[in-house]
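Saturday, quiet lab. Running sequence design on the structure tokens for the scaffold JK sent over.
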């Protein structure tokens, strides 16, 4: 949901793979029946959850998870597919969404951004085309970027580029190839700049991911009989944009579900912008009652305290679901060393708020205590299996109802084991 890797990208050693400039061949509906009722697929988890369970410290949770090794594994609405399946697949592509579906995600995310012709498309940020697509390598489109590619210099100035969905129209957007999110700040050529996938991900499926408009995503996910979590991304251009207001943008996103006759109970609309949440509560109450308030105030100590104190007021204004990053929902109990619910988590429950959180499987190895997402529990994190210990506290003590993940299988294993 948030772009936290900018300073942590590492130069991949993999050699660049030729990327065709046309779209992939999948239309994504070969397995859908168009009625939103095609749920009959076999959920497959692959080896990763087993690796993580084997890696856990001995104890009752490990024993319980081991007892579930042979399934059955089922599609679960607990599992929100964050950007698709970006641990291994280019984000917001048919291929990534399809992988998440196969791994049991009941709800698929589209981060919503607008193009120059004010159409909605799935991208994590309005201005991430330079790190998530091949646009810089496209002679017909690269020059349209807000900031075209500028190479790194020998005196240490990093390479620069900034390409926004609002720099191009929707038809042009559809011709781009999705790639793994990342860049090499030391690049002196476009080719080097594009080659920056973090060490714990892979370029194996990064040969030309098929991008989706918001409407195509709705048709695709509806065809699979799954549910939706669109995030209205913060504009990175001044609003109104050529007459396009923030309210119209928030309304257009909801209107797409109404036009497709999607029941609002199948849609979790999210935003980091409180006014978007309040807009939906007031103007589209059927969608507003399931709107997800992404809470980034917790990122600073003072903000965390303020956010915690504000929860009863937010509940009184009609907010039902709060969603801070998962680090903010737990802490270490100093007396016992155990991971326990945080002050924020306790206050949210007391205010009658539902909690959703993000994002699992974005951290890479946990053997050194993990990253941002594990900042409050770092002293007790020392192996990859510890992510299930944190998850267990989030589910069984904090009481989260859904979680975003970059790799659905890891959550589906747990969800099926505990009947979530
Ligand atoms: C870029 O160069 C700096 C300085 O030489 C180095 O520390 C860093 O690891 C390099 N980054 C990448 C992604 O190659
Ligand atoms: C960039 O474009 C060139 C020429 O079309 C192609 O050979 C190369 O593989 C592309 N590289 C990337 C990373 O897209
Ligand atoms: C959609 O549902 C209707 C009624 O249940 C059924 O007759 C029709 O065959 C379905 N369409 C597809 C494409 O499966
Ligand atoms: C490095 O060089 C660039 C131009 O090549 C210049 O704009 C920049 O100010 C220089 N930075 C430093 C730290 O000298
Ligand atoms: C399904 O694919 C066909 C082409 O095979 C295309 O015409 C149609 O628009 C697609 N439908 C959806 C819902 O994507
Ligand atoms: C916290 O709330 C106080 C009182 O409303 C305010 O003055 C302060 O700026 C807030 N701090 C943060 C970081 O939000
Ligand atoms: C618990 O430990 C943390 C980190 O050492 C510290 O910041 C916090 O104040 C302690 N809390 C209590 C209640 O002692």
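Result came back. Writing it out in full:
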């Amino acid at each position: 949901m948030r772009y936290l890797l900018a300073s942590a990208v590492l130069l991949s050693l993999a050699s660049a793979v030729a990327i065709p400039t046309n779209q992939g061949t999948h239309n994504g509906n070969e397995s859908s029946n168009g009625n939103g009722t095609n749920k009959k697929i076999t959920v497959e988890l692959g080896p990763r959850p087993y690796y993580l369970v084997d890696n856990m410290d001995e104890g009752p949770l490990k024993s319980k998870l081991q007892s579930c090794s042979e399934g059955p594994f089922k599609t679960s609405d607990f599992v929100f597919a964050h950007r698709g399946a970006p641990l291994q697949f280019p984000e917001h592509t048919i291929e990534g969404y399809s992988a998440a579906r196969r791994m049991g995600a009941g709800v698929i995310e589209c981060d919503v951004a607008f193009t120059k012709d004010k159409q909605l498309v799935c991208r994590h940020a309005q201005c991430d085309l330079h790190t998530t697509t091949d646009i810089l390598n496209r002679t017909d489109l690269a020059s349209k970027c807000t900031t075209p590619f500028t190479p790194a210099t020998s005196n240490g100035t990093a390479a620069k580029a900034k390409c926004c969905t609002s720099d191009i129209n929707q038809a042009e957007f559809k011709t781009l190839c999705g790639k793994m999110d990342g860049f090499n700040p030391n690049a002196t050529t476009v080719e080097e700049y594009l080659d920056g996938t973090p060490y714990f991900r892979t370029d194996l499926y990064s040969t030309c991911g098929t991008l989706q408009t918001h409407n195509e995503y709705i048709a695709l996910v509806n065809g699979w009989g799954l549910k939706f979590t669109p995030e209205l991304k913060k504009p990175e251009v001044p609003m109104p944009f050529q007459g396009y207001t923030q309210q119209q943008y928030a309304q257009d996103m909801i209107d797409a579900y109404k036009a497709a006759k999607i029941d609002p109970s199948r849609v979790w609309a999210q935003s980091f912008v409180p006014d978007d949440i309040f807009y939906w509560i007031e103007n589209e109450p059927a969608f507003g009652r399931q709107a997800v308030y992404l809470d980034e105030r917790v990122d600073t100590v003072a903000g965390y305290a303020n956010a915690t104190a504000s929860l009863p007021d937010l509940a009184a204004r009609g907010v039902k679901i709060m969603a801070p990053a998962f680090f903010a929902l737990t802490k270490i109990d100093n007396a016992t060393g155990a991971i326990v619910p945080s002050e924020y988590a306790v206050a949210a429950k007391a205010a009658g708020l539902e909690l959703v959180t993000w994002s699992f499987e974005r951290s890479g190895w946990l053997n050194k205590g993990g990253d941002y997402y594990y900042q409050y529990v770092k002293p007790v994190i020392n192996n990859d299996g510890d992510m299930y210990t944190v998850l267990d506290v989030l589910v069984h003590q904090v009481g989260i109802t859904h979680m975003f993940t970059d790799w659905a299988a890891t959550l589906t294993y747990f969800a099926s084991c505990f009947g979530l």
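Notes for JK: Confidence is low (pLDDT under 50) at residues 2-35. Residues 120 and 295 are 23 Å apart (CA to CA). Ask whether to fix the surface positions before the next round.
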